[in-house]
Automatic annotation (TrEMBL):
InterPro entries: Hexapeptide_acetyltransf, Trimer_LpxA-like_sf. This is Colanic acid biosynthesis acetyltransferase. Its EC number is 2.3.1.-. It is an enzyme of class 2 (transferase). PANTHER family: ACETYLTRANSFERASE C18B11.09C-RELATED, SIALIC ACID SYNTHASE-RELATED. It comes from the Bacteria. Signal peptide: none annotated. The lineage of its organism: Bacteria, Pseudomonadati, Planctomycetota, Planctomycetia, Pirellulales. Belongs to the transferase hexapeptide repeat family.
Length: 176
């Protein structure tokens, strides 16, 4: 790869003013380890274009890159230190849990090309799923309904419904 002169063609999805304002709000209301009310955080996300359901708990130090690309269902828990790098859309269904320090990442780069092109793909976490502590979810992954990604796993591929995955790379629990 050749990074000299790299120019991203990424469309940020909002004006520079909106993005700058979001960064200020995120630094004040989301990133500090202060236990602010979830209702305030939910309201702020909505004010920046996120679609957030009822009964959502958002703990401290949650880092959401672009709220206008986030959809969260009802009765969702987003734990301390969760990072959502949503260069593409992230959809979280109803009754889901994203545990501490989990990382949903919708972007990567084409290492095989000298231009190091940015590649973005959406992530979907379907109803009833649990992304345990320290899990990495890669771009384009869909977590099936009622599935679990065990702590510390690296999820590079779709997870079928009603499946527990573990490891790096994550694979179904009963397989090597």
């Amino acid at each position: 790869m050749k990074l000299k002169g790299y120019r991203s063609k990424f469309e940020r999805g909002a004006s520079q003013f909106t993005e700058a304002l979001w960064l200020v709000v995120k630094c004040v209301a989301f990133m500090p380890p202060i236990p602010l009310p979830s209702k305030l955080r939910v309201w702020l996300l909505g004010a920046f274009g996120a679609r957030v359901g009822k009964g959502v708990v958002i703990r401290s130090q949650v880092d959401i890159a672009f709220p206008w690309r986030l959809t969260v269902g009802n009765d969702v828990w987003i734990g301390e230190g969760v990072k959502i790098l949503n260069l593409a859309s992230v959809t979280i269904g109803n009754d889901c849990c994203l545990s501490q320090r989990s990382f949903l990442c919708t972007g990567s780069h084409r290492f095989d090309l000298p231009e190091f092109d940015l590649v973005t793909r959406p992530i979907v976490v379907n109803d009833g799923s649990w992304i345990a502590a320290g899990v990495f979810v890669a771009p384009g992954v869909s977590i099936g309904p009622n599935s679990m990604c065990a702590a510390g796993s690296v999820v590079l591929n779709d997870v079928p419904a009603n499946t527990k995955v573990i490891g790096n790379p994550a694979c179904p629990k009963n397989q090597p």
